[in-house]
Amino acid sequence: MPSRTSLFEQHVAAGAKIVDFAGFEMPLQYTGIVDEHRAVRTAAGLFDVGHMGEFVLAGARCAEVARRLSANDTGRLADGQAIYTVMCREEGGIVDDCIFYRHDAERFLIVVNAANIAKDWEHVVAVADGQCDVRDESESTGLIAVQGPRAVDLVASLSDGPVAELSSFWFASARIAGVTATVARTGYTGEDGFEVFCGAPDAPRLWSALIEAGRADGVKPCGLGARDTLRLEARLCLYGNDIDETTTPWEAGLGWVVKLDHEFVGRDALARQKSDGVRRRLVGFTMRERGIARHGMAIHAAGDPAGERVGEVTSGTTSPTLGVAIGMGYVPDRMSKPGSRLTIDVRGKAVAAEIVKGPFYKRADPPPQ
Question: Class of 8-49+139-233 per CATH?
Answer without folding.
Answer: alpha beta
